Amino acid sequence: MKKLIHPEKVNRIVRFLRPWLVALAMVLVLRYTGLLSGITDVTGRAMLQTGAMDFEPASLPGARERAETFDYNFSVKDLEGKQVDFNQFKGKVVFLNLWATWCGPCRAEMPSIHNLYNAVKGNDKIVFVMLSLDRDDQQGKVVSYVADKSFTFPVYMTSGGVNAQLEQVSSIPTTFVLTPDGKIASKRVGTANYDTDKFKAFLQELSAPGAEAK
User: Fold this and answer.
1) Which domain holds residue 30?
2) From residue 56, how far is each of 53, 130, 156, 194, 196 by CA, in Å?
């Protein structure tokens, strides 16, 4: 007859597993009650305030000439459901941010983007496209989130697909800055603080007359 596992050995296994099981249970509770995303937001915002995540666009000689050309041939829709041809943004500096309501790192950087938007919105050569990747049936959630946070930058959702450059984005948030002549001046994958004097100056410089020739 096979020997049964000794009770003391069972107790040792249980004692070893108990803290891991408790930690797993806590994560599951936080996740399914929505509290985990709140903790992620707070942690992300705290990191942004340290200055360690300030985004500094590259300014290497000849970088603009080597930059990839952006494909404007797709449409998005605003939060009222109106179709918007992305071609209408040609000739402008475009701050294009891919985000979603379920993305904690996206939410963490939103206040810095909103501050940036307020700082440069007087310049009609700079436009913001906050492109939500939430599903169509989550549009109400997007509208509620934007209203709850009192964000006033333009928010859009996808409509029938995007270009290959955006489809290839592997994680969000991802932010593109496009020049008036359609070049990708910068691309950032991951959370960043855009509310800096250096980044504001970067956008203003791109929007200045003759900037494309520099």
Assistant:
1) 7-49
2) 9, 20, 26, 9, 9
pLDDT digits (tens, 9 = 90+) for 117-143: 999 999 999 999 999 999 999 999 999
pLDDT in tens, 69-114: 999 999 999 999 999 999 999 999 999 999 999 999 999 999 999 9
Domain count, the chain: 2
- 116: closest CA among 164, 165, 55? 55
Buried b (16+ CB within 10 A) or exposed e, 72-91: bebbbbebeeeeeebeebee
The pTM of this model reads 0.76
Q: Is residue 56 part of a domain?
A: no
